[in-house]
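Last lecture ended with a question: if I hand you only a sequence, what can you say about the shape of the protein? Today we answer it with a concrete record. The protein is Apolipoprotein D. Below, first the input exactly as provided, then the predicted structure, then a couple of comments.
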Amino acid sequence: MMSPACLLLLVLPLASAINFNWGPCPSPSVQANFTFQRFMGKWYEIESLPNPLETSQCVEANFLVDVYGKAVVIFTSTVDNRVEKIEGSVHQDIGEPAKLQISHYYCEPSPWWVLATDYTNVAAIYSCTSILNYFHLESIWIASRTRSLPPEVVQEAKMVFQRNNIDVSKLVPADQTGC
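The predicted structure:
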């Protein structure tokens, strides 16, 4: 079972994106023929689930390979005019490469499933952590290579979640101003 400290570390970099639901995690479809090398680089949060405890803006995730050849992600956000960074290691599921696992320190990995991406503009990302199958913590992000997306592209990303029976009614726009 995940310790409360590890759960907090896994939730913090999710910026403003968490929802509590009863029962086990769903199993949505992920991007077919996913290529991590094409996915690497900087992604900006466009919309996510709200978290009233989080007041960050300018949220981004930069996926890269470190000097040792390991995949890592650096989450950056601004909280109270202070830039915060958290680094995690990235592991891919061998059978389903779009199912990424992000680890921070000595905590259990957090799932980051790429449900859909065109690699150059938009990505629909889903995370779910089940707690003893009684309830689950769910996170949803629409991410972009730029700090904004046209509304029709955001709507197309929302449709990806909806086709997987994932509720997007609570998504809110991210604050990417003044970054």
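Comments.
1. The chain has one domain: 4-173.
2. The helical segments are 4-11, 36-39, 151-163.
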